[in-house]
Design goal:
The complex is a heterodimer of chains A (93) and B (324).
Chain A lengths: L1 E4 L5 E3 H6 L12 E3 L2 H10 L3 E3 L8 H10 L10 H12 L1
Antiparallel strand pairs in A: 1-3, 1-4
Helix pairs in contact in A: 3-4
Chain B lengths: L5 E6 L12 E2 L4 E5 L4 E2 L14 E2 L4 E8 L5 H9 L3 E4 L6 E5 L9 E7 L6 E17 L6 E8 L1 E3 L9 E3 L9 E7 L5 E3 L1 E9 L23 E8 L3 H9 L6 E11 L5 E15 L15 E5 L9 E7 L5
Antiparallel strand pairs in B: 1-2, 1-9, 3-6, 4-5, 6-11, 7-8, 8-21, 9-10, 10-11, 10-12, 10-16, 14-15, 14-18, 16-17, 17-20, 18-19, 19-20, 19-21
The chains are: A alpha+beta (93), B mainly beta (324).
């Protein structure tokens, strides 16, 4: 499962370091880490700085609008699918 | 606690809404959890001489975090002590200054995730609706810029079952050699003072007595009056400092601690700057002792509100975090 780290520099996670040997413990802001589902779930649940990397193109427009509402993206009611996907990705970064 | 334990701090959107997902896992030396229970019993004529059951009444928690201030997470702790920061951009790309000034601000409520990893099964609590009660900051030779922050939390969720993956904030700490203290007396120009130590002790006096019928949790907490003491231990000009202890009328002193660390980019540095705008010398004993050489004196100053500057205390942190 892929997770994206969106927090500040200078944070370390030992479990990612152990799971991804070449990666080391230090986290890169904006970095995507492919870890097993159990670890990925725990990362997302226990840190505001980890987000699930979802394939937004596969979701319906209504589902995207709901996600956009979580990020309080303006104009989400009128946006088309591509624009919604782009706005959500930007909000997550 | 051992090194594998974790303390997470998360900003709440509002009082009443807990947040179980920490913004930062803060490395702490210790996190003391005081649970302040009210026990009650009644002496009654029960036909024997042994006590009747003791009941537990209201309970609230005060969690005291102690550690060295870290560049990324320290401002989150400051936000519950002093209110939200005013963030401005600096010169280097990504560098930001977060200024905490409690005048006219409401403290940011926080949830604290306390995770003890040694026992099996591990024990986690989520203390929430927390408001900063006391903040002590201090720095002395051969040590870091340390803090001790006590947060009063009227609520607990002890059913949290998230097994956290701890993302430790290992951003820089500030060391004693990076710290300087400046004094400005009665509005005169600031001069650097060589000191053996600097400390502040801020109290928000959170009221924890609003118990109501129908619940064992506090009905509400309230932020009380603020008090602030400053401690400095000068190594020079001892007789000048001593005269200020005795001076009447009082001198009004502005005290500034500047902890200036490494460069962020080309120009800006990781910094903590604490300014106390108006303080008066209160204590400064100078004793004679046959066995000691008198080289420093421990001074305590009491702070008050500066009506001209409309300031009491402010703390500015420079780092690379976009916002809090």
């Amino acid at each position: 499962m892929k997770v994206r780290y969106v927090g500040p520099e200078g944070q370390e996670n030992r479990e990612i370091g152990q799971a991804l040997a070449e990666q080391g413990d230090v986290l890169e802001p904006g970095g995507v880490y492919d870890v097993d589902a159990a670890l990925g779930k725990r990362l997302v649940e226990s840190s505001a700085h980890f987000k699930r990397v979802t394939n937004y193109e596969k979701l319906s427009v209504e589902a995207l609008r709901e996600i956009a509402a979580e990020y309080e993206i303006e104009g989400r009611g009128e946006m088309k699918k591509d624009a919604l996907v782009k706005a959500i990705r930007e909000a997550e970064a | 606690m051992s090194r594998i334990d974790g303390v997470g701090i998360a900003k709440q959107t509002a009082l009443g809404t807990k947040n179980a997902v920490p913004d930062y896992w803060v490395p702490v030396e210790s996190a003391e959890v005081a649970d302040n229970p009210e026990f009650y019993t009644k002496e009654e004529t029960v036909g024997h001489r042994f006590p009747t059951d003791e009941e537990v009444g209201g309970r609230f928690w005060e969690v005291t975090l102690a550690g060295a201030a870290r560049a990324a997470s320290f401002p989150r702790i400051l936000s519950t002590m002093l209110g939200p920061a005013t963030t401005s951009a600096l010169t280097d790309p990504g560098a930001k200054k977060h200024l905490f000034d409690p005048v006219g601000k409401t403290l940011v409520p926080v949830s604290l995730f306390v995770h003890r990893a040694d026992p099996s099964p591990k024990i986690s609590d989520l203390f929430w609706d927390g408001l900063g009660n006391t903040l002590n900051m201090s720095v002395a030779p051969n040590d870091f810029l340390n803090y001790e922050a006590a947060v009063v939390c009227p609520q607990i969720d002890d059913t949290v079952s998230i097994a956290p993956s701890i993302t430790s904030d290992l951003t820089r700490r500030w060391t004693f050699d990076e710290c300087k203290v400046y004094l400005s007396v009665d509005g005169a120009a600031e001069t650097e003072e060589k000191v053996q130590g600097w400390s502040i002790s801020l109290a928000n006096n959170i009221a924890t007595d609003a118990w109501a019928l129908g619940s064992k949790r506090l009905y509400s907490t309230a932020v009380g009056n603020a008090n602030l003491d400053v401690g400095i231990e000068p190594l020079a000009n001892l007789s000048t400092h001593y005269r200020r202890v005795l001076a009447d009328p009082r001198n009004n002193v502005k005290v500034r601690l500047l902890a200036q660390g490494s460069l962020i980019g080309a120009v800006d540095r990781y910094e903590v700057e604490v300014t106390v705008y108006r303080a008066r010398y209160r204590e400064g004993p100078l004793n004679v002792s046959a066995s000691d050489t008198l080289r420093s004196m421990a001074l305590t100053l009491g702070a008050s509100y500066d009506s001209t500057a409309t300031k009491f205390l402010d703390v500015a942190v420079k780092n690379v975090v976009a916002s809090y």
